């Protein structure tokens, strides 16, 4: 695999989440990674994609400016006046070719868009030009959602209470914020990789580690408050 590997450190919490995500892939069911800001939700999906050779992961950031037509496809004008041709959307192409898809911040996606994709979530089918297209064997779909804590509420309603009917179709994958010891290990591993891994990992000064961890926590709080 010549693609660049994502920066993934196999901490205990991340490894457990990766196993749960892999189980969802094996079962061919959609999975949503739920966790605090900065916990590594996107990286988790990218790591599994890298390990399985699906490095052409399609990342989708959908907002209220996006409708189902733009994802599935539409007829567009040609150079010939009055003539139109079908232009499949990015999601349709992914379904047809077996590309993996990641929907970021799925709780921000308009309900109408998610509702139009229910057949894809339930039966791995998508309606294209009035006909059902069955997803390629390799097609998988993932999502991320940012929550303050990955407790019972987040797992029971992975898309939020307002999208219960859709969220229950997905397998929730909780990803907790790394604890102090895991964060310290993450910082040290980052330094080691930054040095190219050519030398044994040197213990960092505790004050330096503490400073980096505090800066990380502050940044996460600021992002979560936006």
Automatic annotation (TrEMBL):
Q: Where is the signal peptide?
A: 1-26
For this UniProt record, give its keywords in alphabetical order, as a comma-separated list: ATP-binding, Nucleotide-binding, Signal
Record bears the keyword Transport: no
MF terms in GO: ATP binding; ATP hydrolysis activity
Q: SUPFAM superfamilies recorded for this chain?
A: P-loop containing nucleoside triphosphate hydrolases
What processes in GO biological process is this protein linked to?
A: ribosomal large subunit assembly; ribosomal large subunit export from nucleus
ATPase dynein-related AAA domain boundaries: 32-155
Keyword Nucleotide-binding (UniProt): yes
InterPro entries registered for this protein in UniProt: ATPase_dyneun-rel_AAA, P-loop_NTPase
GO CC list? nucleus; preribosome, large subunit precursor
Name of the protein in its database record: ATPase dynein-related AAA domain-containing protein
- List the source organism: Pinguiococcus pyrenoidosus
Q: What is the lineage of its organism?
A: Eukaryota, Sar, Stramenopiles, Ochrophyta, Pinguiophyceae
């Amino acid at each position: 695999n010549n693609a660049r590997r994502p920066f993934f450190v196999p901490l205990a919490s991340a490894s457990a989440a990766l196993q749960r995500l892999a189980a969802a892939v094996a079962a061919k069911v959609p999975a949503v990674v739920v966790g605090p800001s900065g916990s590594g939700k996107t990286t988790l999906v990218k790591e599994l994609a890298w390990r399985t050779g699906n490095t052409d992961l399609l990342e989708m950031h959908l907002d209220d400016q996006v409708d189902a037509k733009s994802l599935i496809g539409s007829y567009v004008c040609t150079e010939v006046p009055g003539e139109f041709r079908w232009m499949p959307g990015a999601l349709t192409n992914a379904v047809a070719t077996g590309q993996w898809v990641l929907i970021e911040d799925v709780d921000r996606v308009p309900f109408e868009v998610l509702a139009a994709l229910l057949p894809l979530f339930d039966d791995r089918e998508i309606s294209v030009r009035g006909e059902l297209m069955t997803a390629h064997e390799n097609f998988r779909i993932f999502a991320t959602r940012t929550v303050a804590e990955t407790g019972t509420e987040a797992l029971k309603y992975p898309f939020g209470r307002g999208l219960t009917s859709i969220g229950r179709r997905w397998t929730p994958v909780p990803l907790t914020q790394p604890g102090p010891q895991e964060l310290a290990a993450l910082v040290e591993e980052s330094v080691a990789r930054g040095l190219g891994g050519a030398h044994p990992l040197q213990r960092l000064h505790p004050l330096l580690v503490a400073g980096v961890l505090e800066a990380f926590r502050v940044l996460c709080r600021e992002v979560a408050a936006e």
